[in-house]
Amino acid sequence: MPGPRPVRRPPEPVSAASPCSRPTRWSRSRSARPNRASWSDVGRQERLQAARSFDASRFVPFVADGRVLGHVRHDHAELLRRFDEILVVGEAGIGFRPALATHVERSEAMARIAHRFAIEGRLSAWRDETYDIACEDGGSAAFVLERCAVRFFGFTARAVHVNGVTQTDGRAAMWIARRSPHKAIDPGMLDNMVGGGLASGLSIEATLVKEAWEEAGIGERLARAARAANTLRVLREVPEGLHAEIIHVYDLDLPGDFAPLNQDGEVAEFRRLSLQEVARELEGDAPYTVDAALVALDCLERHGLRLR
Q: How far is CA 256 from CA 171, 224, 278, in A?
């Protein structure tokens, strides 16, 4: 079924929780320590806490086959009551009608809801790409859903992000991207060199290779040299609902003369910054996406900048 005409929405604000009562500090060897006078403790703390800004009392679980697949905000749950031929909406949870028991049946039913909400302007731009919807700890997918509807239901998405690390003037540096101003989510904001969601049926490795080429012009052979570095979790309320994501983080050592070149129009520019420059931007108010800030901070720790 073809998707409805895309609906554009304003970019979501990057919300942040209050700073921790006990400040977190960076530590490095004395010879490599950046100028602390130029750093803002509040900026760093806000970025770390922004990735975990979830109040469960504002949501109701979406359950299928005894597994919690997502969390639907209460106002969104009320909107789902009209689809009573598909869903049972209660105070304690939301689930499928017993007649919808198979992957295909559930996928088709959820597609009808997504199309209706897209037409009504309740979703971001239609992507014509589906995500596998499963519980956070894995397992088989219960169904697939159009990507732009995932946040509405608070389903967990999976993504791959790659830190592009190189050397400049004998110092470690990182490639930072600026998202296209035409992106449906976080337009114009700063991002990791490569980042993309796992579409239905694609593995982590296949997504890495695909996104590395599309976003940065990195060939398959070089992309496969990326090292798995960490797995990070984002869970934060956003205007669209809930951004729940598991990020598979990779580090990729790049030749000094390599320059990323975007292929799909989703990146406006790339900048190569020393790790100290990246750290200072993250400590300040540079407009990094919540995901990208978390991934970049994680990479900085692996290169000697440690939180304590």
A: 11, 18, 18
Q: Is the pLDDT of residue 39 over 60?
A: no
Q: pLDDT tens digits, residue range 43-67?
A: 677 888 899 989 999 999 999 999 9
Token pair listed for 204: 């982590």
Topology, domain 40-308: Nucleoside Triphosphate Pyrophosphohydrolase (3.90.79)
Report how far apart, in Å, the C-alpha atoms of 181 and of each of 7, 172, 259, 270 are: 15, 29, 21, 14
Q: Kindly report, residue by residue over 114-126, the tens digit of the pLDDT.
A: 999 999 999 988 9
The token duo for 111 is 């597609």
Query: For the chain, how long is the longest CA-to-CA vector?
Result: 67
Bridge partners of residue 242, in order along the sequence: 237
List, in sequence order, every residue forming a beta bridge with 241; answer none if it has no partner. 238
Domain spans of the chain, in order of start: 40-308
Of the candidates 46, 52, 8, 10, the residue with the CA atom closest to the CA atom of residue 237: 52
Q: Give 42's pLDDT tier (boundaries 50, 70, 90).
A: very low
> The tokens 């998707």 sit on which residue?
3
Buried-exposed string 8-21: b where 16+ CB fall within 10 A, e elsewhere = eeebbebebeebee
Helix (H) / strand (E) containing 270: strand 267-274
Residue 95 has pLDDT above 70, yes or no: yes
Neighbours of 268 (CB within 10 A): 15
Beta bridge partners of 251: 163, 227
| Tokens, residue 227 | 């090292």
At residue 304, the pLDDT reads 83
Q: Are 157 and 245 in contact (CB under 8 A)?
A: yes
Q: Is the torsion defined by CA of 130, 57, 99, 3 positive or negative?
A: negative
Kindly tell me if the per-residue pLDDT of 28 is higher than 60: no
Helix (H) or strand (E) holding 129: none
**Nearest Cα residue to 249 out of 282, 227, 274:** 227
Separation CA 289–CA 295 (nearest Å): 10
